[in-house]
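Marked as duplicate of an earlier ticket. Keeping the data here for the record.
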Amino acid sequence: MQLVTVIGLVAAFCTTVSYIPQIRKIWATGETHDISLKMFLILAAGIALWVLYGVLRGDAVIILANSVSLAFLAAILFFKLRNVARGRG
């Protein structure tokens, strides 16, 4: 395996699992008021574009890592939007 591939895989792993502590905290506390909805919406758009970029390039690492990131981000957005709807922002 080439070094550039290893670096890409490690980077993808790190950025993808970075959402897990936030999801666990939200799950445990139910609190999302300190999370910026606008920032997460912009981030979701960016990650979706990365998935599209990966598809256009045929790069499985980019597609997989960003698809998983987008799923984790969707979980955070679900909790945030649910709390906004309940008036708990």
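See parent ticket for discussion. The chain has a mean pLDDT of 94.
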